[in-house]
Design brief:
Helix 13 runs parallel beside helix 23. A hairpin with a 3-residue loop joins strand 9 and strand 10. The model has no long low-confidence stretch (mean pLDDT 88). Helices cover 47% and strands 13% of the residues. With 840 residues, it is an alpha/beta fold. The chain has five domains: 20-162 and 275-311, P-loop containing nucleotide triphosphate hydrolases (Rossmann fold, 3-Layer(aba) Sandwich); 169-267, no CATH class; 321-532, Rossmann fold, CATH 3.40.50; 534-626; 628-840, Restriction Endonuclease.
Length: 840
């Protein structure tokens, strides 16, 4: 049959809108579709569309419809010719949830779960892809070649770091992988020193911190054996270790090796996110959606870059009513599980725990579902009228709004996850480094049953670690403003109304859920009238600025060592470490450890020694590291004080090391006494001075959020002196009653946390300070003016120089005399630093 051309030329292709608002407005009418874009969503979409930045962070409260924003952006990219847009979700459950939202919007999409595409739209360029992070961060990712993404949306961007890290973490379990675990453990043990083997034995027996960190060169030494076991990693059913192995196969030199009783974990100390093509490529457009990612340092540590633009529309979603009660203030707190069990038989209860192991105590209520059954069990819980659900080691990704659930128990602080993070938290106590990550998880947990502005619920906090963390103002300042007020409200409630028994708690819960008018008025009056302390915000802001700068250095360092550019790695980071130490000495010590490892891998062990020494000082590290005995400053000998041991070490070290260490500490202390000193710089100078003198020197307030500014401890005599630095105050200032009270609190902290340590002296450091007549300082406290530290440092250095000029026999005799007469005991050192008694 002949073709009839009289119908005219072919129709021109339809021009599809690229403005996401127009895309929304132009959808066809379908059942159950989304009726309107909310104000916050519209603001976010408009600002994104008008921006030319390739990296845009959009922060919307929990419940504010991030998936609508993200899927419309993907459709906009698709319509605008961006190749292969991809929307990444944290879990497969969320892939399905996001797909349902995209279907309501009548968008063109494909899902990929378990290696299977739902249709061919993405592969043929007609739709965007909704999948998990793992699809992108994968040694054998399908998102390459013709399917390489030109645009990526990272949903729940606040969980990016742990998700990406999981892909770079090889975990070999003793039970699941005995054929790999056994030979690997045997080799690790053979590489360790006698003392390190003893520490590992304690861990395997379930003692101590529960984790053991190997010397940093261990990963490189395991490479040959791991290569020989290649076929075992690729065996059927071993995807959980096969995929990470492929990413790490030639990079074990850049990995930390951590062991627990059951697992061997290999994971990079800093994520090499900048080596992931879609994150490195400046041509790829990236949007990051988050409800809680307030700390830019955490963003950088996850994605290897700073956002070019941050969009934070003001929205009411997620700003519901939270009533937060601490179980630790209940007289019968041991009966909390029984109380919760009874509540779960009458209503619905959600319990969140940091891990499956910690969920065991909640077994009377429910058992955490496995990964495979999670979605089905959650659907059953949502549909039920009563019962319990356990959220173990998971902080977001489930929504239980309105009457779906009104009661939640948060059991334990959501710290840890990987063995590496557990080690940094428990062994090195790097809480300052990890605090923003923990704050994000805490915020997420408080969003699980509160989704809208009119939502309400009761939260019970269980576990000392959690309640202590929230009671520290510095940590609290990391949370959203409304949540901070709600935490404070809970503390006031329990104090003012004696909510100290589960029976009273039960009555109060009923008043909340029944919306008693008196309670509603009380809540609103408190929240509207409460103001937050700007000083805590400022202090946290300063700390975050330092963390951000460190994160940028870490990312460059991680990229360089991943690519075997050892010289670049060292030159980028080494000059900046002392600056990092000013705000976070433990983070600086962690960096020192890995610069030492990089120098060692680069064939320069003699240069690695100095960084290993400094790492030991800043982290109070007991690990055996390759340090030349002649350059070891950690102290030794049968002396009766740590400082005499340090003098012994300084007397025998090389001239180069001695000169560098004494110059460094002298400069720090002199700067702390000068007009340009800062609070954090002065604190680090006093810590460094104590460490130089052989003492266990720390900054408890900076490191944990509680305790004195600086603490010196002699580990031989179990004695200590503490410092409260007021170097930022003007000369002749008066210490207020509140400031004196802070010192009392910090001394009590020492008593509570160091019960075996005797505090010799507490110092207030400042110039010509006086005490308010309303204050009540202890008569033993001393004022120490900053110049005293300069004189003290000079005297200690002079003593070390005197010893260095003696012959070997004379030197040992002189050290014995110093040990006997106590001239450098902690008591004598305290006397040297005292300007006058604070009450004089």
């Amino acid at each position: 049959m002949a073709i009839n051309f009289k119908a005219g030329p072919p129709r021109p292709p339809v021009v599809r809108p690229v403005d996401p608002i127009q895309i929304f407005q132009g959808r066809p009418a379908l059942e159950n579709q989304i009726n309107d874009v909310w104000r916050g969503q519209a603001t976010a979409l408009t600002r994104w569309f008008e921006s030319t930045e390739n990296d845009v962070l959009i922060s919307l409260n929990t419940g504010a419809g991030k998936s609508v924003v993200g899927t419309l952006i993907c459709q906009s990219w698709l319509n605008g010719g961006v190749q292969n847009p991809v929307y990444l979700c944290a879990t497969n459950d969320l892939v399905d949830q996001t797909a349902r939202e995209a279907a309501k919007l009548a968008l063109d999409y494909t899902t990929r779960v378990g290696g299977t595409y739902s249709n061919d739209q993405f592969e043929t360029g007609k739709g965007f892809l909704i999948t998990s992070y793992q699809t992108l961060v994968n040694a054998r990712t399908v998102l390459r070649g013709d399917l390489y993404p030109g645009g990526v949306v990272f949903d729940d961007a606040h969980v990016g770091e742990p998700i990406i890290r999981s892909q770079y973490t090889l975990t070999i379990n003793k039970t699941k992988h005995p054929d790999i675990h056994e030979p690997l453990l045997s080799l690790i043990v053979s590489l360790l020193s006698v003392s390190d083997r003893q520490q590992l034995r304690f861990v395997i027996e379930g003692q101590g911190h529960g984790t053991f960190l190997c010397p940093p060169s261990t990963g490189a030494k395991l490479g040959e054996l791991l290569a020989q076991l290649h076929t075992k990693f690729q065996a059927d059913g071993r995807a959980e270790i096969g995929f990470p192995y492929q990413l790490l196969a030639t990079k074990f030199h850049a990995c930390a090796v951590i062991l627990s009783k059951w697992d061997i974990e290999l994971s990079p100390p800093f994520l090499p996110s900048r080596t992931i093509p879609a994150l490195r490529d400046s041509n790829v457009k990236r949007v990051y959606l988050s409800a809680t990612l307030k700390a830019e340092s955490e963003f950088i540590r996850a994605y290897g870059r700073r956002p070019g633009l941050t969009i934070e529309p003001e929205v009411d979603a997620g700003n519901g009513e939270r009533t937060i009660i601490s179980a630790g203030r209940l007289k019968d707190s041991v009966g909390l599980i029984s109380w919760a069990h009874a509540k779960s038989r009458a209503t619905k209860l959600l319990v969140a725990t940091p891990s499956r192991a910690s969920a065991e105590v909640w077994r009377p209520i429910a058992v955490p579902p496995t990964r495979d059954e999670f979605a089905e069990k959650l659907r059953e819980f949502k549909a039920a009228s009563r019962g319990g659900f356990i959220l173990a080691g998971r902080f977001d990704g489930i929504d239980l709004p309105d009457a779906t659930c009104r009661l939640m128990v948060i059991s334990g602080l959501p710290s840890g996850g990987s063995l590496l993070e557990n080690y940094l938290w428990s062994a090195f106590e790097m809480q300052n480094f990890l605090s923003a990550r923990v704050a994000t998880r805490v915020t997420q947990l408080f969003g699980r049953i509160i989704r809208g502005r009119n939502d309400f619920g009761v939260f019970i906090l269980q576990g000392k670690s959690l309640t202590n963390w929230l009671e520290r103002d510095r940590n609290l300042a990391l949370l959203p403003d409304l949540l901070q007020k709600q935490v404070k409200l809970g503390q006031v409630l329990q104090e003012d109304f004696d909510l100290n028994e589960t029976g009273k708690l039960d009555e109060f819960y009923q008043q909340v859920v029944e919306r008693e008018p008196g309670w509603l008025e009380y809540y609103r009056n408190y929240i509207d009238g409460q103001s937050l302390d700007e000083r805590d915000k400022d202090r946290r802001r300063q700390s975050e600025e330092a963390q951000r700068e460190s994160a940028l250095l870490e990312m460059k360092f991680a990229e360089a060592i991943w690519q075997n550019r050892f010289g670049d790695a060292i030159s980028d980071l080494e000059p900046q470490i002392d600056g990092v130490a000013t705000s976070d000495p433990k983070l600086a010590g962690w960096l020192n450890l890995w610069i030492g490892a990089t120098l060692e891998a680069d064939g320069r062990p003699h240069l690695a020694h100095a960084h290993y020494r400094t790492a030991k000082s800043r982290l109070r590290l007991e690990m055996d590291l390759p340090i030349d005995p002649e350059d070891d400053l950690t102290g030794a000998g049968d002396y009766n004080s740590s400082s005499v041991g340090a003098l012994w070490a300084l007397s025998k070290t090389s001239s180069r090391i001695f000169r560098r260490e004494k110059d460094k500490v002298s400069e720090r202390v002199a700067h702390a006494a000068g007009p340009a000193s800062t609070t954090s710089g002065s604190e680090e100078a006093y810590r460094a001075l104590g460490s130089f003198c052989g003492l266990d020197a720390s900054r408890p307030d900076q490191e944990t959020g509680a305790g004195p500014d600086v603490l010196w401890m002699d580990t031989i005599t179990n004695e200590a002196i503490s410092f409260e630095l007021k170097t930022g105050k003007l000369d002749n200032s008066e210490l207020s009653k509140k400031e004196v009270g802070q010192s009392h609190n910090h001394i009590q902290w020492i008593s509570d946390n160091k019960p075996d340590v005797r505090l010799i002296r507490h110092f207030i450091v400042g110039k010509e300070l006086t005490v308010s007549r309303f204050g009540n300082p202890d008569h033993s406290w001393c004022l120490s003016e900053p110049h005293e530290a300069v004189s003290f440092a000079a005297a200690f250095i002079a003593e070390a120089e005197r010893l260095r000029n003696l012959g070997a026999d004379q030197r040992m005799g002189a050290l014995d005399n110093l040990s006997a007469d106590g001239s450098w005991s902690l008591e004598a050192m305290a006397s040297r630093l005292c300007t006058k008694k604070i009450t004089e």
